[in-house]
Amino acid sequence: MVLPRQLAAVVAIVNPMVQNTTTTDRAFAAIGDPTRRAVLERLGAGSATISELAEPFGMSLTGMKKHVRLLEEAELVTTEKVGRARRCMLAPYAFEGISTWLQRLDRFAQIVERTKGDR
């Protein structure tokens, strides 16, 4: 039987592992959403305010702020307060981790192609 104190110790051990995701994991989770991918594409053309990002989607500022916050947590986007507006831009070197992982995936795809006839 697990006592409450033991259960708390188990939760304390497991919980940090769940919360300890890598930057690359957060980035892939963030780009899993089509709205966030569109925001990244837009920011590739230059910085924009949250209002400017929200407008093409007919989205509330609150809704876009949530998307931007997730992109910030994934270290793909940075923001700065300029007067009353929050300006968003792509983070420097934001896609290095993703790019490295995709290069590994490409090497894996090449191995798969080479071994297709081995069955």
What report would you give on this structure?
This protein is mostly helical and 119 residues long. The chain has one domain: Arc Repressor Mutant, subunit A, CATH 1.10.10. Helix content is 61%, strand content 12%. The protein has helices at 4-19, 23-30, 34-44, 50-54, 61-73, 96-115; strands spanning 48-49, 77-82, 85-90. A three-stranded antiparallel beta sheet has the order 1-3-2. A hairpin with a 2-residue loop joins β2 and β3. α2 (23-30) packs antiparallel against α5 (61-73). The protein is elongated, with a radius of gyration of 20 Å. The model is unreliable at 7-19 (pLDDT under 50).
Our count of domains comes out at 1
Note the beta-strand portion. Answer: 5-15%
**CATH fold name, please?**
Arc Repressor Mutant, subunit A
Distance between the termini: 50 Å
Number of strands: 3
Helix % is 55-70%
The CATH H-level superfamily is Winged helix-like DNA-binding domain superfamily/Winged helix DNA-binding domain
Oligomer: single chain
What is the ordering of alpha helices and beta strands? HHHEHHEEH
Structural class: mainly alpha
How does CATH name the architecture?
Orthogonal Bundle
Radius of gyration: 20 Å
Per CATH, the class reads Mainly Alpha
